[in-house]
Amino acid sequence: MGQIHATVSPMSNSNPSLADHTPPTSAQHGKRRLLEPVQGVAFWASIALPFVQVPLLLSGLHDWTAVLAFGSLLALNVLTLYVGHTYGRE
């Protein structure tokens, strides 16, 4: 059987966030200033929402409104986790 040789480019393992050291433009700075409060609210909402979901779940999902409320809160929690997961990293 023949041998297969794979070559890997030396740049394939480079980290794009480390490669770009250009300072942010004023538009990027403005966007970051507007985005940070939204991420902060989403971060803290993702922490607080389970305190609403757990009692609702423990009380029982006996009718469709409780199931709808729990499902909506769960979807909102997933969304807030996604939006707020980078809050406070810079």
Give a verbal description of the structure.
- The chain is 64% helix and 0% strand.
- It has 4 helices and no strands.
- Helix 2 (26-48) packs antiparallel against helix 4.
- It is elongated and about 55 Å long.
- The termini are far apart.
- The model has no long low-confidence stretch (mean pLDDT 81).
Strand and helix map with partners:
Layout lengths: L15 H4 L6 H23 L1 H10 L4 H21 L6
Helix pairs in contact: 2-4, 3-4
Name the shape in a single word. Answer: elongated
> Helical proportion?
55-70%
Report mean pLDDT, rounded to a whole number: 81
The total of helices stands at 4
Radius of gyration: 22 Å
SSE-based structural type? mainly alpha
Low-confidence stretches: none
- N-to-C terminal Cα separation, in Å? 53 Å
